[in-house]
Amino acid sequence: PIVRLCINYLGTLLCSLCGYQTLKIFDILVLDMITMVKLDFIPLCSSFVYSSHQSLVTLVISDKLLTAIDEQALSSLFQSTIFHTTYSDIHLRLFLEFVPKTSKNLIQHSKQSYYNKYIFHRVIKQFMIQRHDPLRNETCIQSIRGKRFPDKFYPQLKHNSSHTLSMANAGSNTNKSQFFITIVP
């Protein structure tokens, strides 16, 4: 019998836990089983968790039944913000531990509705969308610090999936407030 089902936040992976010490992971998009794992305990709880230390989602399995998610513990992993557009809202999860200046810059601009007056001025189908600098002359671009801030690169953080956000800039260490979001990997 199936004890528990969970789905990752993108809605692409499903994990089923069975009372027979078995875990199965399915690709929802192609309706196919990816793997089956025999466990040395009876699984009672599972959850997909994204940690700022990893570029991949981790599946956490427990032999204890947890009835509530510790929101405070999860909120320490990332900070959320929302950009409102005329088309739809964009919900962002920003990882302060890896990119504190970038995260704080985007959060503060979002709270002050800084981006609301600007459009996604660069849209490349099947690649990315870019927000800011509609005049293309950098007169309206600023960071919350009033100056440029340095790039941050981590080998484990890659642009190999859709919906990844990065700063757009004019070269090394010239970040201000422009950003882009990948549409496809």
UniProtKB/TrEMBL annotation:
The UniProt GO MF terms for this protein read: peptidyl-prolyl cis-trans isomerase activity
Catalytic activity field: [protein]-peptidylproline (omega=180) = [protein]-peptidylproline (omega=0)
- Report the InterPro entries cross-referenced here: Cyclophilin-like_dom_sf, Cyclophilin-type_PPIase_dom, Cyclophilin_A-like
Give UniProt keywords alphabetically. Answer: Isomerase, Rotamase
For this protein, what is the EC number?
5.2.1.8
Domain spans labelled PPIase cyclophilin-type = 77-185
Q: Does the keyword Cell membrane apply?
A: no
Q: Which family does it belong to?
A: Belongs to the cyclophilin-type PPIase family.
Q: What does this protein do?
A: PPIases accelerate the folding of proteins. It catalyzes the cis-trans isomerization of proline imidic peptide bonds in oligopeptides.
What is the name listed in the Swiss-Prot or TrEMBL entry for this protein?
Peptidyl-prolyl cis-trans isomerase
